[in-house]
Design goal:
With 194 residues, the chain is an alpha/beta fold. The chain is built from 8 helices and 4 strands.
Length: 194
């Protein structure tokens, strides 16, 4: 529910923040998806991410997806092979499947295509509460940001992190608000302790 190309979007602000605050480089993959239109074109969005990642072979890649972006990331990891290894995947208030056996993250972690996964869960996430209803499920929404990860292989559990502490009063997009943006970015970039 953000319009690509707007400078106030969290994606653009996150790219700028990363490049002026850390030694890392950043890129964004933007697209438009509404609440209902999300079901159409999800494969194309995952392919767009795959194509962008192809330019970064040899880099230490960290992926960050918020809401539907988390689903785009898991679809990309599950549907397209040959990617450079992903160092860390951050699923922020993710609207993707929470079952690691079904969302492909068990396989990606086991095959070392992904190093670590962090799942951020907002305590007052009304959007994911709606996604957890039968109409939300019918539209393909998952609720990893609400439920947390399920069916993570025990051997992989030490590489999966759930971040809830400090997020109890957050709504679905509150982490990107002006008053919380820096804290969120420090957590994602590793310049802050979980």
């Amino acid at each position: 529910m953000t319009f690509p190309g707007q400078s106030k979007n969290w994606t653009g602000r996150a790219v700028t923040w990363t490049q002026v605050t850390t030694q890392a480089k950043a890129e964004k993959v933007e697209y438009w998806a509404g609440y209902l239109s999300r079901v159409v074109g999800q494969h194309k969005r995952a392919y767009k991410l795959y194509r962008t990642l192809a330019y970064y072979r040899g880099w230490n890649i960290v992926l960050v997806g918020h809401s539907n972006g988390a689903d785009v990331i898991t679809d990309c990891l599950q549907g397209f092979y040959g990617l450079a290894p992903i160092q860390h995947v951050h699923l922020v208030c993710g609207a993707c499947e929470s079952d690691f056996a079904r969302n492909g993250l068990n396989m990606a972690l086991a095959e070392r295509r992904v190093g670590e996964v962090s799942i951020y869960s907002a305590g007052k996430d009304k959007a994911l509460a709606w996604a957890h209803t039968w109409p939300g499920r019918l539209l393909g929404y998952g609720c990893i940001g609400l439920e947390g990860p399920t069916r993570v292989r025990p051997a992989l559990a030490s590489r999966v992190h759930v971040i809830q502490r400090g997020w109890e009063d957050y709504g679905h997009s509150d982490c990107w608000g002006d008053d919380r943006f820096d804290d969120t970015m420090r957590m994602i970039t590793g310049t802050d302790i979980y």
